[in-house]
Amino acid sequence: MTQSISPEPFNRPRRRNRMVEDEEWIRSFLRRAAVGVLATVSGGQPFASPNLFYYDEEKNVVYLHTAGQGRTRTNIEGHGKVCFSAFEMGRLLPAEKIVDYSTEYASVMVFGCAEIVTDLAEMRYALQHQVDKYFPHKKPGRDYAPFTDKDILRTTVYRLVIEQWSAKRHAETEDFPGAFYYGERSEFITPET
Q1: How far apart are CA 159 and CA 29, in angstroms?
Q2: Which helix (H) or strand (E) segment is 45 a member of?
Q3: Residue 11: inside a domain, yes or no?
């Protein structure tokens, strides 16, 4: 099997007609996207893990966190180069030919270096902003006990320094024939008791 390496820069999408170059759109997307996937590598083996995240536009970094120890931390300690992708799926788009079936989507890929945050104040900042993103109606001291140093030190907080990014988007008109959303709603598997 021959391995093909694209002559294109890794942050340039193949489908130019779906490429988004509007940096305000990219920043806006990263502020609102619900989830992303962090790709790390260890010994040549890639690992991808879904994460909640906070995009700090002023610092141009993405903050994530995981448990205090684990594969993500080990991989980043060994090799800080990472790729992070945030995405949304829209409607499925049928067509006359199966090879023309498609979907609406929007995505941003971030390329950079992940660093482990060790400054307690920055860790608190990142974690609080992430809580504020996902639970904007909840307030510390009113709805939940604020982070203690002990709480913070149970986690590993990462600062993904953005070196490059790329974005794609595909959307059709509201009246696209036969367009529909996949499934009615996501169901979680309940653990066995």
Answers
A1: 18
A2: strand 45-51
A3: no
Question: Does the residue 187 lie in any domain?
Answer: no
pLDDT tens per residue, range 75-121: 999 989 999 999 999 999 999 999 999 999 999 999 999 999 999 99
Give whole-number Cα distances, 74 to 48, 71, 77, 185, 186, in Å: 13, 5, 5, 35, 32
Query: What is the residue range of 127's domain?
Result: 16-170
CATH number at residue 77: 2.30.110.10
Q: Specify whether the CB–CB gap between 36 and 101 falls below 8 A.
A: no
Is 48 within a domain? yes
Model-level pTM? 0.84
Using the 8-state DSSP alphabet, how is residue 29 labeled?
A: H
- Residue 162 neighbours by CB distance under 10 Å: 17
